[in-house]
Design a protein that fits this description.
With 198 residues, the protein is of the alpha/beta class. The protein is built from seven helices and five strands. Strands 2-1-3-4-5 form a five-stranded parallel sheet, sandwiched between helices.
Length: 198
């Protein structure tokens, strides 16, 4: 009633029904479940139900949905799952959120990975520069919708070029999911990181 929240993705108040649902679940899990169905059963059933809801929203299979703590956590999990060696190439755009920059800078320092940066300002990616940058890449990471100016990148097209060159593709879709329909199958990426709070 006293102010307007414009950064609701990161710092706005949760809707009352969300707080109420979380509180109800926590109270049931903590006070009722141990004496009835058991806390593990309640937790795993809630997790699977949430996975089905998320998959339905994303038009994905529940088995393809993994819950992480954040988009940055999901990106870091992918970074940690790949056996990077000195000289391996990671390509990103110059419009990535820090979550799409820091893991690769760390791999650059600690492992000797080469990080290439392609311009994507205003959503404009030079296709020849992209093809050159990803030609020998191990991983390509870019956002579907730029957090800097709201431009959409041609995800399927950029993914095709990268995968044709033998690279894996990780898409940061945190700005896309919830803003409009997304078709992960059409994108063809190897992994997509997103969050439900936007």
């Amino acid at each position: 009633d006293r102010c307007t929240y414009c950064n609701t993705g990161a710092s706005g108040p949760s809707p009352r029904n969300v707080v109420r649902a979380a509180t109800d679940f926590l109270e049931h899990h903590a006070f009722e479940a141990p004496a009835d169905e058991g806390p593990y059963t309640v937790a795993f059933e809630a997790l699977e139900a949430a996975r089905e809801v998320a998959a339905g929203h994303l038009d994905a299979r529940p088995a393809d949905v993994a819950f992480t703590r954040s988009t940055a956590d999901g990106i870091n999990l992918v970074a940690g799952a790949i056996d990077f060696q000195p000289g391996d190439v990671v390509v990103r755009t110059d419009q990535e959120h820090s979550a799409g920059i820091v893991p690769w800078e760390q791999l650059e320092r600690e492992v000797g990975v080469e990080v290439r940066v392609v311009s994507a300002g205003g959503g404009d990616v030079d296709r020849d520069a992209w093809a050159d940058a990803v030609a020998d890449a191990k991983l390509v990471v870019f956002s579907s919708l730029l957090w800097t100016d709201g431009s959409r990148l041609p995800v399927a097209e950029l993914t095709d070029v990268a995968q044709d060159a033998g690279a894996r593709v990780l898409v940061d879709a945190v700005q896309s999911v919830g803003q409009g329909p997304v078709d992960f199958d059409a994108w063809g990426a190897d992994a997509v990181a997103a969050a439900g709070h936007k």
